[in-house]
Amino acid sequence: MSSEDVFTLLRRTPPFSFLDPTVLRTIAGEILEEHYPKGQTIQHQNGPSAAHLSIIQSGAVKVFVKTNEGEEVLADYRTRGDFFGLLSFACGDVARDTVVAVEDTSCCLIKKEIVLGLLKTDAEFSEFCFRSRLKRLLDMTYREIRDRTLLYGGGDKLLFTNVLKDLATKEVITAPEDISIREAAEIMAERRISSLVLLDSHGFPSGMVTDRDLRNKVVSKGRDITGRVGDIMSATIIKSEARDYCFEALLKMIRYNIHHLLVVDKGEMKGIITNHDLMMLQGTSPLSVAGEIEGQDTIDGLVPASKKIGKIITLLIREGAKASHITRIMTEINDRLLKKVLEITEKKLGPPPLGYCWIVFGSEGRKEQTFWTDQDNAIIHEDPKDNAEEAVAYFPEFAVHMREALAKCGFPPCSADYMASNPQWCQPLSVWKKYFSDWVNSPTPEAILRSLIFFDFRPVHGNLLLAEQLRAFLGQQIKGNDLFLAHMTNIVLQNRPPLDFLGRISCEKKGVQKGKFNIKVNGLCPIIDIARLAALETGMYHTSTLARLAGLKERDSAVGRFSLELEQAFEFLMSLRLRHQFQQIQEGTDPDNFIDPHDLGDMERTMLKAAFKLILSAQEALRKKRGTEVPA
């Protein structure tokens, strides 16, 4: 490559792209080139450290470490624009991993003295390298956790590693929507299929008829089987992409209460996947619990099904699910249970006199529930006009019934009484707007506390437009309100991760938790608070921490540049929390959030410190942005 070609490559390769062009041209003039044939080992674990930082110009390499038993643990694949060698020479004179060319590979080599100099003198260059190293460590640490026999031994991981195209029935059987019900049934019987995709006059899918449709809409109703099959089909076809993992299909089946999904690839039909396929793949499926919940019509009937929900987490952990996948599945199942409890309660007390929306907040509002959660809910109902007395009588009684029913199903009442059964949190939309307006425009300590709780609200059931109107109103109140945002920032800055001035993990000094730290309060909550503040500041409607962080990548925010790494750190911390609680349950003790760092592996402790340092960097960015605006 010419010096100009090298300069162009560096300008496109972070973190070199952050450097001044004059500095880049100087570096480009000193770069060497090296070519490695496929299969060549470029760096040996425990061998000499790298003398250069290698930027891949073409080809690809595999980075891995070997365990004491000789097993290869994959760390990463790197391709054009990626680099390797930094960890090797930055951390000592011995290489920590092995690098092998998996294709014919060409690299540009930069002397380690140049890179080490940049790490000391250029803050942006140094920060990027730190964050890149954080991601690599996260990936390796997660693999280490996933492969531990305590959690994952004997559990297949197929639900989270198989994509739909590998499992779906390859041949999609179709028929015109104008054929008779009898003809459709004959096709299904002859082909031994449980679903038939129906096509409109232009040959496009217009719906699907299943064996359940035939039972529920034809046989049980005594319907004329010479009638048009299009009249009984499900007009909305729920689809999944062929590249989606099977657990994504599981989520959709639970969410929409369906048993068949059409699998498509770039709009073209590629197959059908059924709940039976997933249950055969997984063994015991969350679908069976969701189906059991759906089939109940009394609270007492829901209790046995609700007791199985906690076991699903154990199943998912054993199968190697990521923490975010587990919480997403748990949210779908818990939402299904909550909606069923609401429907049963409505049937018992009669239809509500006004439209209402049942909202949840806290971890439930953020879709981050784990093994144990209490009730955090409220009611927003329409402003009464002529039937105010009915509303005053109905909703408080309804909320009390809900509190008792949810307690029966394993969700204990909130100790702080943040529940719809508290009359303060069972109010018309106009009162909720006043609450929010008062909290935002008069940010007292109590108002900020309630903002932290209630602004994570998520609608679950009823007239969802009421919640959307409240969310829009909140956005208007916060927009440009620097005083409120400054007070909220102050709260975020106060909750710092547990690192002492020497960079060691600081733990409780006395009491029953001596020598431990609270991973929820001191690890997860700082990220939750950062994401919430940024979402409110930028007008984002997401309530999930991971969704908020993902949304920041495209928005102007003080912590936007940290969003990807904060996502990864949150995933890692949540995984540690779940694993810790899982182990406690296996030992017969109540799950908590207190972790002893000495119970973690070396890599996990390293990753934990890196995650805490990242949170501190994000908090510092917030402090610099607000500066003197932050109240004392």
Account of the 3D structure:
With 632 residues, the chain is α+β, with helices and mostly antiparallel strands. The protein folds into four domains: 3-117, Jelly Rolls (Sandwich); 163-282, Roll (CBS-domain); 286-478, Beta Polymerase, domain 2, CATH 3.30.460.10; 482-629. The protein is 49% helix and 15% strand. The chain has 25 helices and 20 strands. It has a four-stranded antiparallel sheet with strand order 1-8-3-6. The chain has a four-stranded antiparallel sheet with strand order 2-7-4-5. The chain has a four-stranded mixed sheet with strand order 17-16-15-18, sandwiched between helices. Helix 8 (181-191) links the parallel strand 9 and strand 10. The protein is globular, with a radius of gyration of 28 Å.
Given this structure, which CATH class of the largest domain is correct?
Alpha Beta
Shape: globular
- Kindly give the count of domains: 4
The average pLDDT is 83
The fraction of residues assigned to DSSP E strands is: 15-25%
What order do the strands of the largest sheet run in, or round the barrel if closed?
1-8-3-6
Query: Please, what is the CATH homologous superfamily of the largest domain?
Result: Beta Polymerase, domain 2
Query: Structural class, please?
Result: alpha+beta
Question: What is the helical fraction, as a range of percent?
Answer: 40-55%
The CATH topology of the largest domain turns out to be: Beta Polymerase, domain 2
Separate helix tally = 25
Task: Kindly state the number of beta strands.
Answer: 20
Gap between N and C termini = 56 Å
Which value, in Å, is the CA radius of gyration?
28 Å
